[in-house]
Specification:
Layout: E1 2-7, E2 27-28, E3 31-32, H1 33-43, E4 48-53, H2 57-64, E5 71-76, H3 85-92, E6 100-104, E7 107-108, H4 111-118, E8 125-129, E9 140-144, E10 147-152, E11 164-174, H5 176-191, H6 199-204, E12 213-216, E13 223-224, H7 228-241
Parallel strand pairs: 1-4, 1-6, 4-5, 8-12
Antiparallel strand pairs: 2-3, 6-11, 7-13, 8-11, 9-10, 9-11
Helix pairs in contact: 3-5
Length: about 240
């Protein structure tokens, strides 16, 4: 199994924190987010990584060298300022083989949450939480039972009868078949000029024929770091835990 980590963005909402470094290299609990992700995932036996980058590729390379016995392929997105991560996903397509973990570079997650996802019996799944309020600015999922039917930041709790809405974190385990189908659909979006949408927009168009299960991260601290407030909250949690 490979893992792809998206680190092409500039983190414009982070203010002074990302003036000279990307979000993925922000320190949380004494280590960078990127180092922490590599450390945890390599601890579960993941040895092959694909990392998309923009302005700070050399900085990410230097950080990856601190983790022994892993292979990291860096894929630079020269249009990182004007495209969303769907474009970076498309650029990485030629290097993706087989089953895949897919996650954002600004994601802080616990080892237990990663374990639940990686060791799930479902070949296609991602992290959700039905027990917390729906986030205003982050991804949500619309589900029938535990099967995800739609992913969007715009979703509300107003879903059809028999369905539920839940917070979703962009950390996916994908079979080779679903990864390939998602990449193919993302390519169609790129070829039609849709480079500023979420990759999940493409995924939504194939979920009708897939079984993507939600895996609960209830009672675990999992969050994207999009703002200085997110960083402060995560730093406080990490230091308290240590």
């Amino acid at each position: 199994m490979q893992a792809i980590i998206f680190n092409s963005g500039v983190g414009s909402r982070m203010g002074a924190l990302t003036e000279k470094r990307p979000k993925g290299l922000l320190e949380v609990g004494g280590e960078s987010l990127f180092y922490r992700q590599l450390r945890i995932l390599s601890g579960f036996g993941i040895r092959k990584f694909i990392v998309t980058t923009g302005k700070y590729e050399q900085d990410f390379k230097a950080e990856a060298e601190k983790i022994p016995d892993i292979s990291v392929k860096f894929v630079n997105n020269p249009l990182y300022r004007t495209t969303n991560y769907i474009y970076s996903f498309h650029l990485a397509k030629q290097f993706i083989r087989g089953d895949l973990l897919l996650l954002h570079g600004d994601l802080y997650f616990s080892e237990e949450a990663a374990k639940r996802l990686i060791e799930s019996p479902h070949p296609d799944c991602c992290l959700i939480n039905k027990k917390i309020p729906l986030p205003e600015k982050d991804f949500k999922a619309r589900l029938t039972g535990d099967v995800i039917k739609e992913i969007s930041v715009a979703l509300t709790g107003n879903v059809p009868q028999g369905q539920t809405a839940a917070a979703l974190q962009p950390f996916y385990k994908l079979s080779a078949n679903l990864a390939e189908a998602w990449l193919d659909k993302a390519g169609e979006f790129i070829n039609s000029g849709k480079v500023n949408v979420y990759a999940e927009n493409a995924l939504n168009e194939i979920l009708h024929s897939a079984l993507l299960y939600g895996i609960s991260y209830e009672n675990e601290f999992v969050t994207e770091i999009d703002t200085p407030e997110d960083h402060a909250k995560t730093q406080e949690f990490a230091l308290r835990k240590n």
